[in-house]
Amino acid sequence: MDSTALPLSKRFRGYLPVVIDIETAGFNPKKNAILEIAAVIVEYDANTDLVITERYSSHVMPFKNAELDEAALKFNGIDPYHPFRMALEEKDALELIFKPIKKSR
Fold first, then answer.
1. Per residue in 13-67, pLDDT tens?
2. I need a labelling partner for 89 at 20 to 30 A (CA). Which of 9, 58, 61, 104 fits?
3. Burial of 89 (0-12, 13-18, 19+ CB in 10 A)
4. Beta carbons within 8 Å of 10's beta carbon, 6+ residues apart
């Protein structure tokens, strides 16, 4: 199916949106670290319903001197230093997430 004929893709110059979810250690992007990031790529199916076709996610290590708001950590339930998170440095996590998005577009 040609997705450019559908109204949603016209809003984004022929591209469909990518859904991004980020969990952080607070609301200040300069002080609070990204702790988890996920992305899903959607496409239209034969019935013109949006369906998830690809999923990517990564745990992220807090950057040096990041402030970790205890209320945010309690809310999202993330232990940033849990040894089994297998978290990546922020740069590596963002590259992991965005590389397939750039490729698919």
1. 767 788 999 999 999 999 999 999 999 998 888 888 889 999 999 999 999 999 9
2. 104
3. exposed
4. 4
Q: Which amino acid is at 74?
A: K
**Token representation of residue 70:** 């205890």
Token pair belonging to 18 = 């990518």
Instruction: Report the distance separating Cα 54 and Cα 104, nearest Å.
Output: 10
Q: How many residues can be counted in the chain?
A: 105
Structure token pair of residue 57: 């996610």
pTM above 0.90, yes or no: no
